[in-house]
Amino acid sequence: MARSSVAMRLLGPPAIVTLAAMVALTADATARQTRPAHATEATAPRDAGEPIMAIVSIKTQQVTFYDADGWILRAPVSTGTTGRETPAGVFAVLEKEKDHHSSMYDDAWMPNMQRITWNGIALHGGPLPGYAASHGCVRMPYSFAEKLFDKTWIGMRVIISPNDGEPVAFSHPALFVPNRETIAAAPAKAEALGREAAEAAKMADEAKKAAAKAPRATASLTSSLRKLEGLKTRADAELARADKVLAAAKTDEAKARAEDLKQKADARAADLGTQLDTAKADAKPKLDAAAAAKDAAKAAERKKTDTAKAANEAKLALEPVSIFISRATQKLYVRRNTHKPWPDGGEVFDATIEVPVMIRNPDKPIGTHVFTAMARNEAGLRWTAVTIDEGDDAKDALDRITIPQDLLDRIAPTALPRSSIIVSDEPLSRETNYRTEFVAVLSSQPQGGFVTRQPTADIRVANFRGDDFFGFSFQRNSDSPTGNRGPRGGQYYRQGQQGWWR
User: Fold this and answer.
1) Looking at residue 403, what DSSP letter applies?
2) 8 A C-beta contact, residue 54 and residue 157
3) Spatial contact of 347 and 340, defined as CB atoms under 8 Å apart
4) How far apart are CA 140 and CA 130, in angstroms?
5) Helix (H) or strand (E) holding 334
6) Percent of residues in the chain assigned helix, strand, coil, to nearest 5
7) Confidence bin at 24 (pLDDT 50/70/90)
């Protein structure tokens, strides 16, 4: 430092100014090199369909929306700054709010907000300085966010990629192949089963009311029978005592008295026995009817549950299905949107299916791949693949997985466009809950904007219930499952025990 000061004094003021300018230019050039080339808004030169997915590139600070035939809209974005990085991974739109103000950042205006996690990550309109500058959200140009707002839908896929990801045409035997006849019959089937479920629910309610009345109607009979049974028991006891007294009598007089007591006790016991038998005979039809009403109520409740479950399955078959296969947990998870609004915001997703899955070489990374059914074609569905994490290529990843056949038989015949299969090394994030499709973040990428936020409280996951199709069970947030890749601030999902939340 001393030498530099001496040198500057020797060089004089002009040289110092020149040197300072060179340093500034070098610093500016370095800053420009670390920032991506400025993206611009663009619209595809064709009629656009409904967007199916959005891909955000953190590297190029750009978002691209795709319909069934390719990209339709592009725009620059600003993702999370250092320490508040936007998490890379797989998400879906959970909630939309036209005029949103932040509850975390001084009531900051975030217009045309489209939430992708319940702990606060969203796409919204905001200032774009030309580089990553947000607290974790994805800022889009104000006008672009406004134009986009009415085009998207709850459950639309959002992929945040560290690099440049794009969907490429893809085919594989493991991808769903729907049955045309089954799909054509599905709406009528859902309607018929819905009517059957409604009728079963009505019958169950009537049977429950009838069963509730029966105990009141038979209460006096039951009381009378209990009273007679008590009297008969005491009479039998008196008769037994009379027998003992007679057996113990030594004199003729004592024997005569004992014999008289025994005859009276015997007559009373016999009379009460006759009364009890008559009362039981008279009460039997009514008691049998009450028992039958109780059994009928139980049977009606079982039918209500079974028909409601069948109706629910048929209704869900009309929706696109999303599957997540995790190498970390060796499980396969299924989600479908019920379109049931929730008071806290968003919609409820059905999460009744979660099964083990076979993955060959489970210790070998598989990558993160999103396979999406973009549209129908002659073969059934036209699929694309997006890969956003290192591991196998898309084909090799699916080659390693064996989806249970009974699950395929249950889901594949009615698979629709917008259905998806996600394969990942990652477990589901703890942010996957009853109001989400899937949230999975890449553990290999920084997540400052994710882990610094308050995590969602204990998770309630939608499960099937017979009375209204859905219930909710708590799922406690947990640590990383054994064998997962590096820790991510506890962001892991775990299926909880069954137990209806009310």
Assistant:
1) -
2) yes
3) yes
4) 11
5) strand 331-341
6) 40, 25, 35
7) very low
Task: Count Cα atoms within 13 angstroms, Cβ side, for 390.
Answer: 3
Q: What share of the chain in percent tops pLDDT 90?
A: 58
CB of 488 closer than 8 Å to CB of 447: yes
In the numeric block, which tokens belong to residue 149?
A: 């707002």
CB 350 within 8 A of CB 362: no
272-329: per-residue pLDDT in tens?
888 888 887 877 788 888 888 889 999 999 999 999 999 999 999 999 999 999 999 9
Structure-block tokens of residue 165: 């990801």
Q: Strand, coil or helix: what is 375?
A: strand
Please, where are the H alpha helices in 64-162?
A: 142-149
3-class DSSP assignment, residue 48: coil
Tell me: the pLDDT tens digits for 137-186? 999 999 999 999 999 999 999 999 999 999 999 999 999 999 999 999 99
290 Cβ contact partners less than 8 Å away, ≥ 6 residues apart: 211, 214, 215, 217, 218
Mind spelling out the 3-state secondary structure of 246-305?
A: HHHCCCHHHHHHHHHHHHHHHHHHHHHHHHHHHHHHHHHHHHHHHHHHHHHHHHHHHHHH
Contacts 24+ apart (CB under 8 A), 195-198: 196/307, 196/310, 196/311, 197/304, 197/307, 197/308, 197/310, 197/311
Let me know the angle formed at the C-alpha of 202 by 198 and 203, rounded to the nearest 5 degrees: 115
Q: How far is CA 8 from the centre of its chain?
A: 67
Q: In one letter, which amino acid is 400?
A: R
Residue 338: which of 477, 151, 456, 468 has the closest Cα? 468
103 pLDDT higher than 80:
no
Helix (H) or strand (E) holding 311: helix 252-316
Alpha carbons 90 and 170: distance in angstroms, whole number: 19
Separation CA 459–CA 446 (nearest Å): 24
Q: Which two tokens stand for residue 157?
A: 């896929």
E strands in 53-132: 53-57, 62-67, 70-76, 89-92, 95-101, 109-115, 122-125
**Which tokens hold the place of 388?**
């956003």
Task: Say if pTM beats, i.e. exceeds, 0.90.
Answer: no
